[in-house]
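Handout, tutorial session.
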Amino acid sequence: MITAMINILSKIFTGRLAIIRLLMLTSAILLFLMGLAMIYAAGNPARSEQQADPNQAQQAVQDTYENKPDAQSPLAFVWKRQIIYAIAGILAFLCVNLIDYRRLGAVSYWLYAGVLILLTVLVLDIKFNFPFVPVVKGARRWIRIGSFVQIQPSEFCKIAYILALAWYLRFRSNYRTIRGLIGPFALTVLAMILILLEPDLGTVLLMMPILFSMLFVAGARVRHLLLVMALAVLVSPLLWHFMEDYQRMRISCVLLQNEKIFNIVKKNPRIAKVLVGDPDKLRTWKRNEGYQLIHSKQAIASGGLTGYGFAKGPYNQYNYLPERHNDFVFAMVAHQWGLVGCGLVLVLYVVIFAGGLEIAYVNTDPFGRLAAVGIVAMFAVEVIVNISMTLGLTPITGLTLPFVSYGGSSLLGSFIALGLLNNIGRIRPFSVAGKPFEYAEQ
């Protein structure tokens, strides 16, 4: 048994691009450990003299909300669940590497179809109210299995979509025409619609950058991609009217941070009507819709160069920032470890991005190269969007930070994606054809 395990591990972690792949896995594990520390600290803050006197602490922070010390925080034990999720993720990483990644390509359409069926079940719950689909804050994103296990199909949809799209594009050249782009876009929009109905705006925003990245590497004409992007910009004002009020306010809050824009909106009722609906929201948006955004920025700014220290600081000891263990975990990294901690997180992600791109570059298999590019694009967009929303640069979307944020489906999906990169990197495909993606100009 032990000998068999050693042989399997030796096969997975040796061979082609071994150093790069080990660096990527090491970076992912370090990111997980940093995230685990933040999750633990969120539910088990360090005790301080300031925290011993809640009234004095509240008065010092000058907050209008009731923020009591989390002496019995509901987050106190979630770090243990995160460890279980990580074990499952590592096992999934190993399992993905037990077979040749090209076999996954052959069944990628079926995998994608299976995930789409799960997404359809979530949408149908709006009418049928299935007992295994919990409604959390008005969203139907999870399917409950038993008493303790919940899966989020949209997390696995990203991976299945990348595999299916890579398999579709691998030997085609018709997407170098506008008509040829219909297939890839149809494959993408189908999942986007189902995910948007959950609703899960973060995952929806993720899929188009993945599509454009893979099309670009596959050889699609840049002018065609720019044309599609221009059309999307022109159509976007129409989508504004189909958004829910809270979705529009998330976008508006990003604009209202700017004092000049806020004053313009305040003086023009028509603009205020479009952006916030009820003009009274201009007076209360910082305490309501913009609460997380404002406090996220304050948590980051207060961390300074080195931060307050592990499990310390007002934003860790008091519940000023909801979802600080999940969507806003990067803000807590900055709060506790400052600019130094943030820099370390970014360096670890750069290692993963650079390694993934190197794997794609040296791979001569069209399917493997496209899948690697899609996975790197997925990770990159998740990181950029999550960090940008904590800084107030983009709307709050609920997109998690890979390997760092709390969540079983997110962590499991990230390790599966990393396992696919490792699989693609270690296998040298044999090909008698010319190099892929080198088509003559048409």
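The second record follows below. Compare its token runs with those of the first.
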Amino acid sequence: MARSIKPTTKSKATSAKSPLPAGNKAGAAIGLSDLEGKKAPDFTLPDQYGNPVSLKDLRQQGDVVLYFYPRDMTPGCTKEACSFRDQLVLLRAVGAQVVGVSADAPASHRKFIEKHGLTFPLLSDSGNQITRAYGVYKRKSLYGRDFMGIERTTFIIRRDGSIRHVFPKVKVNGHAEEVLAALRERD
């Protein structure tokens, strides 16, 4: 069941310094594909254990596959996470690491990781500050009900902090393989 959240008119992404648009101003949609080549908003978020994880530190280890997903334990999110888990050896072989982000609390992430044997961190953006900074916190509609939520989106971020590729409105089937193929392409 989707959570109903009142939309805000101003981004609270204080820890995300970036030239990227922080919200949906005057009803204009953010063109996520236009973000390719631009600097990714930096962040520090708690992982499943409550430990702070920053994009800056992640980038030092290689390219970052940063995927935003709506909610732990839901069918689509579970399938996506398990697909990344199953492709992780190949993703690491091309110098990338995977990190998931949702608004769920660290305790929820721990249960999700334990239940499905996930081997990569899940970060908690409980205030949706970073999802707003990346332009993935959007108005959604389900069964005639409008609400704000996270649109399933994946970013490949280079070591230098620039966004290499954006996968908006992700369809879960085959997505991890699609990300791997994009990582294997040379710029």
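Points raised in discussion: The domain at 37-184 is CATH 3.40.30.10 (Glutaredoxin).
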